[in-house]
Amino acid sequence: MTAAAYETGNPVRLPDEVAVLNAGLPLFAQAIADQGRPVAQLDWRIPGGGDPEVVAALRRLSGPRAALIDAANAEVYRRLDHGVPQAVAVRPAAEVIPALAGQRLILHSGPAIDYRDARDPLRRSMRAAVCAEGWATDPGQADALLSAGQVRTGSANQHQTVVPMATAMGPQTPVWVVELAEAGLRAFAPLGQGSGDVAWFGKDSPGAIERLILLRDAAGPVLADALAATGPLNVLSFAAQAVAMGDDVHVRTQAATNLLLRTLLPALVRGTHPRRGEVADFLSANYLLFLSLAMAAARTLTLWAGQVESSSVVTGMSRNGTGFAAWLAGPGAPWQYAPSPLVGDALYQPGRSEDDAAPDIGDSSVLELIGLGGACAAGSPAVAQMVGGTMADAARLTEQLDLVCVGRSTRFTLPVWGMRGSPVGVDVRKVVELGITPKVTTGILHNSDGSGQVGAGVAVAPIEVF
User: Fold this and answer.
1) Whole-angstrom Cα distance, residue 346 to residue 386?
2) Are strands 323-328 and 336-339 parallel, antiparallel or unpaired?
3) Using a CB cutoff of 8 Å and minimum separation of 24, what contacts does 210-216 make?
4) What angle do CA 358, 359, 364 make, to 5 degrees?
5) Residue 225: CA count within 13 A, CB half-sphere
6) Rounded Cα distance, 325 and 336, in Å
7) How far apart are CA 232 and CA 33, in angstroms?
8) I need a labelling partner for 132 at 20 to 30 A (CA). Which of 21, 170, 267, 307 fits?
9) CA distances from residue 304 to 81, 90, 96 in whole angstroms, order as listed
10) Is the separation of the CB atoms in 317 and 365 below 8 Å?
11) How far is 48 from 155, CA to CA, in rounded Å?
């Protein structure tokens, strides 16, 4: 009894119902739940995993240096959110990427990796690319050239280029050229190969090689003419409309692809290329066409944001199926590495399971850094199917990312998330403090038999790189 209660003669009464908030081991919460009493488990963890050096760094970065970092982060956010990337051309890669000119070089996703250390899907894609370039007559000969180093490999990201999944590209690969005029920057990405028997799904079959040749000889020139006739296109205006239509612009790009093709349609119909009918068949079935274009647009923004010093915002995430790399804004910021994770929360094709799955691969995680992909999960029924089946399940991905970002998009608004903008600008300080890393919506490739895509799911970026 308190002194006040004693003086007034009113005894303290304990509540008839007690609800518990448990901040300790989950087994305590479970013990209460087993007794049929209300309990909530607090999702809490020691900042930085309790590592004294990490905790000390957090204290500095969120204390004495916070004002400097916050100002830099504000500028990074502005660039990521307000830049206007425009598709200006489709060109053979060697014409716009100097490193490929006159070289036997294959660019791939993620950190640079020796051919012999690459996972099976990436090796197969590299062999298909070598064949499509005419350097080898079959995958066996291509394997010998790559193994001997007679065809070199390199990271696409280091050449202002991004490639989806296991894509490998050579000098003749047709690429989207995306320009950020306000920054004087360009970035590049190969034309999407479509679905089915394709190299970017980790296949080196005759059909996969033939698809690359179709892109080189027909689809590339047809789209180049159409874009030249149409004029520059604001890439992210299509993405913004598509997000409101249910795309996350990563695992699902149907709406964005349809909007793009609708805009190009008059020029495509008026084209004169002798194979335009064949290309039309290909484009009508390529529901992922917009993916690599969106990636190139995102890369221009992260390149611009990466010029800002003293920022704690992540401007790069990339994986090659063996390793995962991430880096911060700032000139010359070093890449940090960890093993490439497996893809969780997965939907597998019939007869497939996690035993068939290769680790996460591709440069497409650049989309999550500008407010697309997992950042837009709250508005995507396709993502909901992978993470529990309800839109509330999908919203949790967006809500978690929101906790570690510096702002929200002013262009990608989510109708089913209260018309709020998707999270933008992953702050490494918040990631390390809360232990929440970006979630990447992505496809899953077979790990060894070259059968291609076996499912889709959500990859969790490894905390180690942060």
Assistant:
1) 6
2) antiparallel
3) 212/128, 212/129, 212/131, 212/132, 212/173, 213/132, 214/278, 214/279, 214/282, 215/173, 215/174, 215/190, 215/191, 216/92, 216/132, 216/172, 216/173, 216/174
4) 110
5) 18
6) 5
7) 59
8) 267
9) 11, 22, 19
10) yes
11) 30
- Is pLDDT at 166 greater than 60 in this prediction? yes
**Phi and psi of 361, rounded to 5°?**
-150, 145
Q: What is the model's pTM?
A: 0.91
pLDDT tens-digit profile of 445-463?
999 999 999 999 999 999 9
Q: Tell me how far apart the alpha carbons of residues 293 and 174 are, in angstroms, rounded to a whole number.
A: 12
Find out whether 462 and 376 touch, Cβ atoms under 8 Å: no
Amino acid letter, residue 342: L
- Say which range, 29-38, 87-96, 334-343, has the weakest mean pLDDT: 29-38
| Helix axes 289-305 and 254-270, enclosed angle (nearest 10) | 110
Q: Distance between CA 317 and CA 320 in Å, rounded? A: 11
Residue 286 corresponds to which tokens in the numbers above?
A: 């390529």
What is the rounded CA–CA span in Å between residue 149 and residue 460? 33
Token couple for 455: 């499912």
**CA-derived radius of gyration, the chain:** 24
Burial of 349 (0-12, 13-18, 19+ CB in 10 A): middle
How far apart CA 281 and CA 129 sit, in angstroms, is: 23
> How large a percentage of the chain has pLDDT more than 90?
82
Closest CA to 203 of 137, 124, 141: 124
* Gap between the terminal Cα atoms of the chain: 51
Residue appearing with tokens 């970092």: 69
Query: Do 432 and 452 form a contact (C-beta atoms < 8 A)?
Result: no
Residue 43 has pLDDT above 90, yes or no: no
CB 176 within 8 A of CB 88: no
CA–CA separation, 417 vs 214, rounded Å?
41
Maximum Cα–Cα distance for the chain, whole Å?
99
